[in-house]
Each structure stands twice: as C-alpha cells, then as structure tokens.
Write a structure and sequence with these properties.
With about 260 residues, this protein is of the alpha+beta class. It is built from eleven helices and ten strands. It has helices at about 5-10, 15-25, 45-50, 65-75, 80-90, 125-130, 140-155, 195-210, 215-225, 230-235, 240-255; strands at about 30-35, 40-45, 55-60, 100-105, 110-115, 120-125, 155, 165-170, 175-180, 185. The strands form three sheets. It has a five-stranded antiparallel beta sheet with strand order 1-2-3-5-4, with helices on both faces. Strands 6-8-9 form a three-stranded antiparallel beta sheet. A two-stranded antiparallel ribbon has the order 7-10. Helix 7 crosses helix 9. It binds adenosine-5'-diphosphate (ADP) and magnesium ion. Magnesium ion binds near residues 164 and 165. Adenosine-5'-diphosphate binds near residues 40, 119 and 167.
C-alpha cells in the first residue's frame, strides 16, 4: 500500500468503514454516486470531506448472502484482490487508477471497500458512444487500440473488457485511456494469446450490444492488429473473435429471455 496514503487512511476517521457506510446510505452530498447494483456501489468522495488534497473513488462490494460472505472472509474479499492486482499493474506503469487502500471484511463489517484515485475529466466509453455531440472522439480508435495492444503486450489480460470499464480522459493537449474494474484481470510473464482473444471477443460483444459493430470492425480491430507484432498477429484469428462474440451475445440473450 503506498505509504503516504496508509498513514492518511489510518489517521482519517472519515475513511473508517462505518463512516463510509453512513455517507453512502445517507446519500450525503460529498458522495457522488456513479453506479449501484446488487454487487457493487461506486462513487466519488469529495476531498473536502476527508481533508485529503484530492477526491477518492470508493467502490463498495456489497453483501450477497451468508455463504458468499463466509467464502470471502476466509479467502479474501474482492476489494482486497482488486487492490493487489491494481497495485501490481500500477507499479508496472500500466494505465490504471492509483490504488490507495482496501478495507477488509470482518464479522461485523459485511461489505468490503476499495479506494483509488479518481480519473479526473474522464468518461467511460459507453457514455462517449451514447453522446452524439462527442464527434471529437471520432479518432479514438487509434489511441484505444494502441493502449489495449500495449496492455496485452505487457502480459495483462483484463478479463472483462466491456466499454464501461474503459475510461477516456481529456487532457488540455491529448486524450488518455485508463482501464478499470480489474477484478478478473490476470498478469502473465508474456502476452497470453487465449486471454487476448477473450478480451477482444468481450470488447466486440459489448460493441454488438451497443450497436457499434461497424466501428469495432472497420476502425478498432484493424488499428489493434497494426499495433501488435506479427508473431502475435498471426495467432489471432479475427473471424474467430467475431464469431465468438456473436455466439456469446446470442447465448446471453437467450439466457435473459
Ligand atoms: N477511478 C475512477 N475514476 C473515475 N470514474 C470511475 C473510476 N472507477 C470507476 N468509475 C466510474 O464508475 C463506473 C463503475 O465502476 P466499476 O469499477 O466499473 O464498477 P462495476 O464493477 O460495478 O462495473 C465506471 O464505469 C466509471 O464510469
Ligand atoms: Mg465495470
């Protein structure tokens, strides 16, 4: 855990789990909710509340029943796992938010928490795609492809590369990409072809769900293939990826209905 923050966290009564629970359940104005569902609650906690010089991303993993809780208590929470993998990736210089801390489960504390930096001035890719005014993002395919390829070439496999798990940050002179929601991320010593195919198929499937198949097909995938060396390119069958994405999409739809 970055030492500077560890001290701040233990000194900071606002970051005790009981206080975080209160802030979230009372929907206090210092907490801006980003997402809430049965598994997770995610939001941004204002720095003015904690006295820290910056805002904090707070992700709460919600209690999902006694046996699930018991397993996480014994084997470690999702928050702890997320913190550890995020730290490894961040230390390697990969584009992920800086991890600050996790708050583990106890018998009394049935939700775990993960705290990280907030990617300022950013939007996830779904929001960008759904906003027709954002035409300036048209050239994003090249930047995104470069980042996904570098991620894969470093030996990382995201494991859930949907569009909402990709943040695009707008800086005064350029845009940057960040990967989030790294629960299922794995880090290998070398590029992992099976993992790369899985990531690309997940990305493609989400593109299908969002009605962005043409963009993925004609812009993103060619750019991605141009960014990877030929020994890897030769082992990636784009038609297989598309086929897998279509099949997974149908399967998921069938499960829903
Ligand atoms: N570090 C961050 N900085 C800015 N926004 C974030 C950050 N982490 C998450 N978000 C926003 O919150 C949303 C949900 O976060 P995520 O970690 O993907 O939760 P979930 O596991 O529920 O999908 C993201 O799609 C993104 O819009
Ligand atoms: Mg997510």
């Amino acid at each position: 855990m970055p030492r500077k923050f560890l001290r701040l966290l233990s000194d900071n009564p606002f970051l005790l789990s009981a206080n975080l629970e209160r802030i979230i359940s009372n929907r206090e104005e210092s907490f801006v909710l980003e997402k809430h569902d049965v598994s997770t609650t995610v939001g941004i906690l204002a720095g003015r509340y904690t006295g820290l010089p910056h805002d904090l991303l707070v992700k709460r993993f919600n209690y999902k029943g006694f046996f699930h809780f018991l397993a996480k208590l014994v084997f470690g929470s999702r928050a702890q796992h997320l913190y550890k993998i995020n730290l490894r990736l961040w230390e390697m210089g990969l584009p992920v938010p800086e991890p600050f801390a996790c708050i583990e489960l106890t018998w009394k504390q049935r939700n775990s928490f993960y705290l990280s930096s907030v990617i300022e001035n950013s939007m996830n890719l779904v929001h960008i795609f759904n906003n027709p005014q954002l035409s300036k993002y048209e050239n994003i395919a090249c930047l995104l492809a470069r980042n996904v390829a570098d991620w894969h070439l470093a030996g990382a496999v995201h494991g859930d590369l949907k569009w909402s798990n990709i943040l695009v940050q707008e800086n005064p002179d350029a845009m940057s990409i960040f990967f989030i929601d790294l629960d299922q991320t794995k880090l290998y010593g070398a590029p992992n072809i099976a993992g790369i195919i899985k990531d690309l198929a997940r990305f493609y499937r989400n593109g299908l769900e969002l009605g962005a198949e043409a963009w993925v097909d004609s812009k993103f995938l060619p750019e991605y293939m141009a960014c990877v060396p030929s020994d890897i390119k030769n082992r990636i069958d784009v038609d297989h990826i598309k086929d897998k994405a279509h099949k997974d999409w149908k399967k998921k739809d069938r499960r829903r209905t």
